[in-house]
Amino acid sequence: MTDQAESIIPDSHRAMPIELERDDTVRRAVVRIARVLRDHLEANLPVAMDGRNVEGVHQVRVALRRFRALTGLLRRDYPSTTLDEAAARARMLARTVGEARDWDVFMLETLPGLSPLGRAGINVAGLLLPLATPLRGAAYERVRQVLGGEDAEWILHLMDRLAEGALWDEARSPAGLKALEEPAADFAARHLARLYRKARRQGRDFARLTPPERHGVRLALKKLRYASEFFVTLHAPGQTAKPYLRRLEKVQAALGMDSDVLTTGRLLERFDGKAGGEIRHVVGAVSGFLCCRQVATRDAAHGQWRKFRWAPVFWA
To answer: What class, spelled out in words, does domain 17-182 have in CATH?
Structure first.
């Protein structure tokens, strides 16, 4: 029975929707959001540490990113050394989990997508897969170490405190405590507008942006998307915000090639010195192929950006 149980690959879990109520205060909204984030992270930690279901690492990465997005919003209005420490610890965990996820994408998506190079007689997977496999294994070993360690335990404990509303029991000024009673809808509108302005500012003169600059736009859009998912039910209950969220998702996806090329380039650097000229030839071919694909998708990304810029926001 034990051997059979150990042979079952655990299922990953997507986050549940966040449901806020129109009359929620900031304090109450944080409790509701933190409960969803905690449950999402807690459900996927054992899956990521097991390592056989690659979606586990992906979901942990998403959970940590969303948690960092929440703490980023709160730290702007409610300075707290606890939240500062939370951001630092979550960033370290996300970096470790992100490395494992990058190797998963490289081996399971990027390498198969390079099959057209086979027509030129370049056996990309045959040469790079044996080099990538041990690096991925080492990345997963680090994931097991950090997710089973003190930082992950500390983050979960803080999430529990946020989900119970207990974090705000820390000593703080009467003005700070009063600010927590601000309507969550006002807090949300203020920060969504700020993140929207930042994304549009970074995307100005989009056609002239370099790939790293377009990647910066994508990161800004990702923060806007997380905040939108937190607060959408305050301003657009039901399905009314779906067109905006779909437009936001599409422009992020269109910009994904820039992220893929930057990440793949960083991973390919890990192969330097691993082998001789044949590997260097393959690495060069892969880099050139991805850059050509990046150029080919640039116009589509620009088109999606223009559509996003003109899409009406749901919080105004």
So the answer is: mainly alpha
Confidence band, pLDDT 50/70/90 cuts, at residue 1: very low
Query: Given this chain, do its domains 17-182 and 183-316 carry the same CATH topology?
Result: yes
Three-class secondary structure of residue 167 per DSSP: helix
- Do residues 124 and 284 touch, judged by C-beta distance below 8 A? no
Kindly report the backbone phi and psi dihedral angles of residue 25, in degrees, each rounded to the nearest multiple of 5, phi listed first: -85, 170
Reported confidence tier of residue 262, pLDDT bands at 50, 70, 90: confident
Count Cβ atoms below 10 Å from residue 245 Cβ, excluding itself.
17
d(CA 145, CA 163): 26
Residues 6+ apart with CB under 8 A from 172: 78, 80
CA 196 to chain CA centroid, nearest Å: 18
Average pLDDT, the chain: 91
What φ, ψ does residue 157 adopt, rounded to 5°? -65, -40
> Cα–Cα distances in Å, from 276 out to 74, 186, 221, 272?
51, 60, 41, 9
Distance CA 109, CA 264 (A): 11
Give per-residue pLDDT as tens, 197-217: 999 999 999 999 998 899 999
Domain boundaries, the chain: 17-182, 183-316
Q: How far apart, in whole angstroms, are the C-alpha atoms of residue 290 and residue 286?
A: 6
Distance CA 103, CA 58 (A): 11
Angle between helices 54-77 and 150-164 (to 10 degrees): 60
3-state secondary structure of 105: helix
Using alpha carbons only, what angle is made at residue 270 by residues 269 and 276, rounded to the nearest 5 degrees? 85
> Looking at domain 183-316, which CATH architecture does it have?
Alpha solenoid (1.40)
pLDDT given at position 77: 87
- Whose tokens are 């600010």? That residue is 179
| DSSP 3-state of 127 | helix
